[in-house]
Amino acid sequence: MTALDSNRTPSISTFASILEAQRAFHRDGQTRDLRFRDRQLEYLENLILNNERKIYEALRADLGKPDQETFISEIAMVVKEIRHARANLKKWARPRRVPTSLALFPASSYIYREPVGVVLIIAPWNYPFMLALSPLVGAIAAGCCAIVKPSEISSHTSRLIYDLLTTAFARDFVTVIEGGVPETTALLELRFDHIFFTGSTQVGRVVALAAAKHLTPTTLELGGKSPAIICSDADLVVAARRIVWGRFMNGGQTCVAPDYLYVHEAVVGRFTEQLRLTLKEFYGTDPEKSPDYARIVSHSNFDRLDRMLGGATQIDIGGQRNRETKYIAPTLLKNTTLESPAMQDEIFGPILPIMTYSRLDDVLMRLRKSEKPLAAYIFTENKLAAERFIELVPFGGGCVNDTVSHLGSSHLPFGGVGSSGFGAYHGERSFLAFTHEKSVLKKSRLLDVSVRYPPYKAWKMKVLRFLLLGKF
Ligand code: NAD
User: Strand 218-221 relative to strand 194-198: parallel, antiparallel, unpaired?
Assistant: First the structure.
């Protein structure tokens, strides 16, 4: 291991035995008890709220994340999910009775929701606390045991997650394994009952391949280039605030941030000016001095963004950077085309390319043909335009007249589609991500009609046709 080297975190040679111990714990049946799950969720909530200060410190050390951003996106998001799960656990977990067709009469049919077993949760570094713990809430609620692998790049948060979860939970129930590629590779060789991965599309493929060897189901929460469209009728002041907030919070390192803009040519001048004013209002004349502006997580990520900007002759606003402090100013790129370097991959930094358009349908058709992004946004006062955008453009989830906020709702499933991932979570979907729905037909022995049994006869066929198709 690298910077995380420690005697405390388990070594690779022990991973298989940790998994076995979790399997045994799961088979033992304690996690089936809803009171047990509720208690563990309560521990987790108290653990987070009692350690708020440490969480702010870790996020500041890893990303220079301002406390308010940490509060909203790392702490409150998880606590809200815990409270929602605890309030609904009984309802989610109870067996559901469903109708039984006449052909199966006399019988009753049920769906039992049971925990899948032992799961692996792999988290990225950009929202390193929330993206490790939010899936864990679903796993605990569903009655699973879990191994959590935080990102080694956000090393302070990784260590804090290790410390907190190791204190709170029995190791056979929840274990944190810190580390990078070697540790994750070793974990992926083991047979889990579900793998929940959040990260890049590229590593998502590695995870899917490893999972395929054991036929392990996966949830893949990946990335992509998420567009935002600013129509000519949009409220430009509000749109600018919501775009700047969504793009530049966390130093632009947000999976659902608007990655690039399509602005109607009639308003691009006014809108760019509004973006400029908003940046000044949010971060002052020198964002490097702003306590509300985060830093790039690592030098390698800084260098990647630096290369992207190095070739950009279209810097309109920003562009200043400092490798030592991993600072990159909020940057707007004008005259962007689909061929521009910033349009080739997900940016994942504080850079916002602006393209213009004249016909909304042309934009919608281009997006319809592109890779399906994790998110997409439109700013318009025209309901028909918004509906057309929703109908024509494939994307994981998104907003009309806002950015990012859709993932704050426990009632909206959050996940990608196509290359931005598959499966979803938040609220009941988190519970279901770690649940097997077991179908059971309970048949009465009182009436045992012989039509389905051999020897097969013409009259039996007639009865079956009537029962199954409604006609002879
Ligand atoms: P990443 O894919 O590099 O790393 C994610 C995790 O995978 C880390 O824990 C890391 O240790 C592990 N990992 C890295 N390389 C590996 C390998 N070769 N084999 C096995 N494991 C490996 O992602 P990241 O850089 O941490 O995060 C950025 C990406 O994540 C962006 O693409 C972003 O859009 C995406 N993301 C998506 C969501 C979402 O909810 N859909 C949320 C946050 C980030």
Answer: parallel
